[in-house]
Design a protein that fits this description.
Distance between the termini: 62 Å
Structural class: alpha/beta
CATH architecture of the largest domain: Alpha-Beta Complex
Shape: globular
CATH topology of the largest domain: Spore Coat Polysaccharide Biosynthesis Protein SpsA, Chain A
Radius of gyration: 23 Å
CATH superfamily of the largest domain: Spore Coat Polysaccharide Biosynthesis Protein SpsA, Chain A
Oligomer: single chain
Number of helices: 13
Length: 476
């Protein structure tokens, strides 16, 4: 079977499933790149570090300019993820993460206090910003076919969140997984849903084009849009950044954070030597020989937060010019058709990163932001820190750090999946404010009121950490 036949099969499968034409054409472009052996790798010798960018902490934006910019801003949350790496089967944004602000301390995994999900907190942040500034501040979600129904059901609690004339969500696209052996669409009768995958968050552009959301926002009087992941509760409405972005005249801006020793993943912006353009290099686009250089904070001091700002007029023009098919770099992702079964057939997932559009927009820029704007939850390690007393949830639904976040490393055998994690922390997260790190090896169940201090460590077969115990370098 020829590669062309594989592409024809994939296009037919997508058409029959009702996938948007722009997404099919985007997939086709990437398929040809994949067919030609394109890997999407960006070599260190071909780039220079990006080091000279403005810092949010140094901005001097007047209150009037900040408020005016926020009044023309919409918030968009990428909400297509299921949290499969943590064993979830619904929208990751519906995972409980905190007790409601002002509520008495309760059980973060159950109990009488109201438990808030990512979605609840995002809505609370937008409501608080609306009340404080008077901005309409639309909140939209880009859902996947797997997250849409659950998300919309959860949003029924908040009828006031919709802005007249605008949708609260639109759908990202999907594409077939390709057999690594011949690049034909995989068939998996055990679970046909696993034959499909999301195209990466670069699908934002064909999905926006197909949905008409950008045009609708412009017609409703909005000029800017802030895009972020729904599992990053640090990406709150920010009038100061909105004011800076509006004044910059840039079509596009990315928020970057300064690296710490714990930052071993995530994309970065670099300068392409060939033409001097800013481009994005994802972890998957880094050659193995260049990993050490990419992680060197003295050479590449920033990492990408995946918080983006768009001038909607510039975005609309680019979507119209390209039909939603932006020329983003290919990211080849090698997987198995069933992520939970390493013996299932090897497949290739064609992906792209939305931040790679920095190379598409002439005059694109970046800004350094505080670490507080980057609080993603990718693992149960991250979730434990977020649920702990390292953060306080304010009445405005902001997560304020009370201490530096420790490095948490839980035994994957027992804590990787949310059910096992929740069972072992049923009495609540331990206090982590006085911990530099927490390392757990073995099957340990934590009682209530447990404190971790210093380089806290638990090793051995496991057991129960008694109520009120203090865990230090030698255990408890």
């Amino acid at each position: 079977m020829t590669d062309l036949t594989g592409l024809e099969q994939a296009r037919t499968k997508m058409t029959d499933a009702g996938v948007a034409p722009a997404a099919i054409e985007t997939f086709t472009r990437f398929y040809h790149l994949l067919q030609a052996g394109e890997t999407g790798l960006i070599r260190e010798d071909d780039i220079e570090p990006l080091v000279d960018i403005p810092n949010r902490a140094d901005l001097t934006i007047s209150d009037a300019d900040a408020s005016a910019a926020l009044a023309q801003t919409a918030m968009l949350k990428l909400n297509g993820g299921l949290g499969t790496s943590m064993g979830m089967d619904q929208a990751k944004s519906l995972l409980p993460v905190r007790v409601a602000p002002g509520a008495p301390d309760g059980d973060p995994a159950g109990g009488e206090a109201e438990l808030l999900t990512f979605l609840d907190i995002i809505v609370g942040q937008v409501r608080a910003a609306r009340q404080a500034t008077g901005a309409r501040l639309p909140l939209l979600f880009m859902n996947s076919f797997r997250t849409r129904d659950d998300t919309l059901a959860a949003l029924e609690r908040y009828p006031d969140i919709a802005v007249d004339g605008l949708p609260v969500d639109f759908l990202q696209n999907r594409e077939p997984k390709l057999l690594a052996a011949d690049l034909t669409p995989v068939t998996w009768e055990k679970d046909p849903d696993l034959e499909w995958c999301p195209p990466g968050h670069g699908d934002l552009y064909p999905a926006l084009h197909a949905s008409g959301v950008v045009v609708a926002l412009l017609e409703a009087g909005f000029r800017y849009m802030c895009v972020s992941n729904s599992d990053n509760l640090g990406a709150t409405p920010d009038a100061t950044i909105a004011g800076w972005f509006a004044a910059s005249g840039a079509p596009y801006a990315a928020e970057l954070c300064r690296k710490t020793p714990a930052d071993v993943k995530g994309g970065q912006l670099v300068i392409r030597k060939a033409d001097g353009r800013i481009v994005q290099r994802e972890t998957a686009q880094t050659h193995p020989d260049d990993v050490a250089a990419s992680l060197d904070a003295t050479r590449h001091p920033f990492f990408h937060t995946n918080n983006l700002w768009f001038n909607l007029e510039a975005l609309a023009a680019e979507l119209d010019r390209t039909g939603g098919v932006l020329e983003l770099p290919l990211i080849r992702n090698d997987k198995t058709v069933d992520p939970a079964d390493s013996a299932s057939p090897k497949v290739v997932q064609i992906e792209s990163a939305m931040g790679a559009a920095v190379a598409v927009f002439e005059g694109a820029t970046a800004i350094e932001v505080e670490r507080s704007r980057f609080l993603p939850v990718k693992t149960t390690n991250d979730l434990l820190v977020l649920r702990s007393d390292v953060y306080a949830l304010t009445p405005g639904y902001l997560l304020e750090a009370q201490a530096p976040a420790p490095l948490v490393d839980l035994d994957k055998e027992y804590y990787k999946l949310i059910d096992g994690f929740s069972e072992r922390f049923a009495a609540g997260a331990p206090s982590l404010r006085d911990a530099d790190s927490l390392t757990v090896r073995g099957d340990w169940t934590f009682g209530s009121g447990v404190r971790a201090e210093g380089k806290a460590s638990l090793v051995g077969d496991g057991g129960t950490v008694r109520d009120g115990a203090t865990v230090g370098p030698e255990g408890f």
